[in-house]
Amino acid sequence: MDFEDIFRLISDYIDRELEADICSEMEEFFCMHEECRCFLDSFSETVRLCNSIQDMDVPEDVHVRLYKSLKITIRKNIE
Amino acid sequence: MEENKINTDIGDEALVEKARKGDKEAFTKIVERYEKKIYNLAFRISGNAEDASDILQETFMQLLKKIDTFKGESKFSTWLYRIATNTALMKKRKDKKRPSVSIDKPLLTSRGSEITRQLKDDWAENPIDIVENKELKKVLNKAIDSMHPEYRIPLILRDINGLSNEEVSNILDVSVAAVKSRVHRARLYLRSELSGYFKEKR
Questions:
Q1: Cys-Cys link to B43, which of A41, B52, B138, B144 (CB 3.0-4.6 A)?
Q2: Which residue is closest to B24 within chain A, CA to CA?
């Protein structure tokens, strides 16, 4: 295990998609290399930040426009 | 569209089945359920409200036309996201206005500096603690927005919409390995952009 491996595998690590023995190897490496631990922290925080992005509400005019168009189209389809 | 009386617990597939048989209430329920999600996906892919509104409209028009062709081979939501994503990409191809950062080897920031092997950045402040910080939100959104769609869209679907690699693979019609690789590179790019922000703040 080296920095290159960590760099390559870090997404799979935080997504829990690695075999247990590889995870253990990475964790040992994190314990031994502070810089790598910092990299893991900032990488994980980045993903957590993305996960925390909230959906915004649909603006009222957009909502009204959508429903109006669908209503017209549905009516046309029935006729 | 009419007021909806359908049970809110009813599953997507059952709703689709009803909508296919011409049940307007069921179709309205589907629109209600996914309007916000599709609008946000469209906004994040297109980067602006006007296009997001058009994509939202076009997606549900497409759904109205294509609902009979849904075979249930994937989850309905995956199928609908696929329609929305393709609609957004078609619109982008037509417009071709927006510049984006290409994330090819070596991984470059929008300012041209290489971001690969920066292992030293430690974040003194926890970004989650200051997620309400408008400036950080702006930086994050700007960084996401600046990425090439090849990387931005998998990241949006995976890390913002919370879909699995398999679902994203299905929506984008690329292999799971390709999804994982693109999301990984997008995350690295984003981390680099945010690291810069935190370093400046210290």
A1: B52
A2: A74
For A31-48, write each residue's pLDDT tens digit. 999 989 989 999 999 999
CA R_g for chain B: 19
Please indicate, yes or no, whether residues B130 and B161 belong to a single structural domain of this protein.
Answer: yes
**In this complex, is the C-beta atom of B122 within 8 Å of any C-beta atom belonging to chain A?**
yes
Same domain assignment for residues B18 and B56: yes
- Here the CATH number for the domain that contains residue B147 is 1.10.10.10
Provide, as residue numbers in chain B, all residues whose Cβ is less than 8 Å from the Cβ of A65: 53, 57
| Shared-domain flag, residues B87 and B106 | no
Within 10 A of B45 (CB to CB), how many other CB atoms are there? 23
> In the prediction, which pLDDT does B111 show?
40
- Whether residue B104 lies inside any domain: the answer is yes
pLDDT beneath 70: ranges in chain A: 78-79
The residue range of the domain holding B91 is 12-95
Helical ranges in B96-164 per DSSP H: 134-146, 149-155
pLDDT digits (tens, 9 = 90+) for B107-146: 443 344 444 444 444 444 554 555 556 778 888 888 999 9
pLDDT score for A33: 93
Number of domains composing chain B: 2
Residue B189 touches partner A, C-beta closer than 8 Å: no
Is residue B3, in this structure, part of any structural domain at all? Answer: no
Q: Which of B65, B52, B59 is nearest to B92 (CA)?
A: B52
Q: How far is CA B143 from the centre of its chain?
A: 14
Residue B107's CB is within 10 A of a number of other CB atoms, namely 19
Does any CB of chain A come closer than 8 Å to the CB of residue B124?
no
Single out the residue in B51, B77, B95 at which a domain terminates.
B95
